[in-house]
Specification:
alpha+beta, Glucose Permease (Domain IIA), 9-stranded antiparallel beta sheet, 3-stranded antiparallel beta sheet, 6 helices, 14 strands, about 30% strand
Length: about 210
């Protein structure tokens, strides 16, 4: 298959069979390296001791952020070598995407170790998914150095299945964040255990994230 530009190759689609979708309620939205916290407060100090995870600043909407306070969080980091389309982690009705503009700092582990607030300073897009079994789920895509382009390919307000394509990043590495309401999901044990040790878990889009 030929591509007009390297960027087209970079965010190319894969055959559906290349990424089987797990039967659990929630799946990883992208290929990459993942950190997960059953309670968002457990993310405090993970990158730098004393730094707090500012949910209000991240979501930039106090009413919405209230829903996810003490909920669960999964941070998925994509590298340039990874498949760069992102997909819905759950099934449900997906809202229109909201854009929060900002700069494009690096969100590499080294950068976040210096300043975790890059996650809520950077340009990002937020979509809420109303689900049957997990309540509301918030998914966001975060821009980074060389990745100002976040493109959405889904139809807002449509029903979507988990694993359905949501959009893609242009060239570079970037991250997604998935937020669940308190008590809605039990994240995968290996993800939680590794994250406690500040170790990322490598997983592919469609692998089980929790139930």
């Amino acid at each position: 298959e030929s591509y007009a530009t390297f960027n087209e190759f970079f965010y190319r689609r894969l055959k559906r069979s290349a990424r089987p979708i797990a039967t659990d309620h929630a799946v990883f939205p992208a290929d990459g390296r993942h950190l997960g916290f059953q309670n968002i407060t457990n993310a405090n100090g993970v990158f730098v001791k004393g730094q707090k995870f500012d949910l209000d600043a991240l979501i930039a909407d106090s009413e919405i952020s209230q829903r996810y306070r003490n909920g669960s969080l999964v941070l998925s980091r994509l590298c340039p070598v990874d498949y760069h389309r992102f997909h819905f982690p759950v099934s449900g009705q997906a809202s229109k995407t909201r854009l929060v503009n900002g700069p494009l700092f690096s969100v590499s582990p080294i950068a976040l170790a210096r300043n975790i607030s890059y996650l809520w300073q950077n340009k990002r897009t937020l979509t809420e998914i109303k689900t049957k079994d997990l309540g509301n789920v918030l998914m966001m895509e975060i821009g980074a150095t060389c990745v100002g382009s976040i493109s959405q390919t889904y139809v807002p307000n449509d029903m979507v299945d988990k694993g359905h394509e949501k959009g893609y990043f242009a060239f570079g590495g970037s991250s997604t964040i998935t937020l669940f309401e308190p008590g809605a999901v039990k994240l995968a044990d290996d993800l939680l255990k590794n994250s406690e040790k500040q170790i990322e878990t490598y997983a592919l889009m469609g692998d089980s994230m929790g139930n």
